Amino acid sequence: MNNFEFKNPTKIIFGKDTIEKVNEEIPQDAKVLMLYGGGSIKKNGIYEQVKNALTGVEVVEFGGIPANPEYETLLKALQVIKDENITYLLAVGGGSVIDGTKFLSSAALYEGDTPWDILTEKIKTEKGMPFGTVLTLPATGSEMNSGAVITRKETKEKLGMGGPGLFPQFSILDPQVIVSIPQRQLANGLTDAFTHVLEQYMTYPVGGLLQDRFAESILQTLIEVAPKVVKDPSNYEAASNFMWSCTMALNGLIKQGVPGDWAIHMMGHELTALFGIDHARTLAVVTPSHYKYNFEAKKEKLAQYAERVWNVTEGNQEDKAYAAIEKTEAFFHQLGIDTKLSDYTSDYKGTAEEISKRFTDRGWNGIGERQALTPQDAEKIVKMTY
């Protein structure tokens, strides 16, 4: 197992009726900017719960953060922070709202002229404006990590950022919120979390026995609860295991001491930027092709995954590894998630070449767990998704 250092300062407040505790976590003298998305929280009662909990706290609101947090929209929120002398941020939403809030946390204290440089120059945020979250959509794990991904429609880019200053101070996780989430979004959340685990697990063995079993247990739990959550989101036991699995999938724990891949996300982000396809669905598009293309490098872990997660016992190592890919793709299909780019757009000609060019222009010449994949490899993988 590789050396590592691990610190996660986010306080998790988990369980039924915990939204009312938000008032206990925010300084009473704070001036809060409450950020949310398209307004669904005003229909499902979460908005009212949060507002009631914030009685006595000075609150300014900013709504309309889109599903892929968009730079131009976030600049408007940044102006509100400056004009209103905001001192604390509260994200009420899913990963997109929380990611957008992380960008604002960083940008609010950024001394440069162009906040987009935080992403293009890979500036690590050591200190941001303090913020907390009320999670409304389990999926990304952003409620307990320090990473974010921001989209810029103007340039059709989707780039990541992060740093130790971007951990939420607290996150409230009430599994009851999933009752009002549409099935499409539930399927996305399950797929997103599942792929987050795979990116940290489906590499090569380094003797991280406990880390492997952490990862496998999250995958097994998601497989077990997926049909229950989709069928009946009011099933609290299923909902709570779903929500906690999504958080554990990307809070930094399972990646310690082991290599990580993340090439799937890098290619998937480009598909979202180019076509506006849901993030989780781009991951499901890329995953099978990525594993087939890199089969020799990944077959040992693929076979282990087949045995431990999918209970595949027959055949040799290669047979099991191929079965693992098939089982994974079938799981996505069972959730109603298509796994070919052509299922989402007929305008895919030249996509692989464009993604290869973007990787080359950014200097992404070595990606994946061994930094061995070139932009030309990415081009071949994306072509396999057609």
Index terms:
386 residues; alpha/beta; Rossmann fold; Dehydroquinate synthase-like, alpha domain
Q: Give me the CATH superfamily of the largest domain.
A: Dehydroquinate synthase-like - alpha domain
Write out the strand line-up for the largest beta sheet, numbering strands in chain order.
1-8-5-4-2-3
Q: What gross morphology would you assign?
A: globular
Rounded to the nearest angstrom, the distance between the terminal CA atoms is: 37 Å
| Biggest beta sheet summary | 6 strands, parallel
Low-confidence stretches: none
What would CATH call the architecture of the largest domain? Up-down Bundle
CATH-defined topology of the largest domain: Dehydroquinate synthase-like, alpha domain
Give me the count of strands.
8
- State the helix count: 14
Number of domains: 2
Structural class: alpha/beta
Q: What is the rounded Rg?
A: 20 Å
Task: Explain how this protein is built.
Helix 6 runs antiparallel to helix 7 and helix 10 crosses helix 14. By secondary structure, the chain is an alpha/beta fold. The protein is built from 14 helices and eight strands. The strands form two sheets. The chain has a six-stranded parallel sheet with strand order 1-8-5-4-2-3, covered by helices on one side. Strands 6-7 form a two-stranded antiparallel ribbon. A hairpin with a 4-residue loop joins strand 6 and strand 7. The longest helix has 23 residues. The protein is globular. The protein has two domains: 166 residues, 3-Layer(aba) Sandwich (Rossmann fold); 203 residues, Dehydroquinate synthase-like, alpha domain (Up-down Bundle). The mean pLDDT is 97.
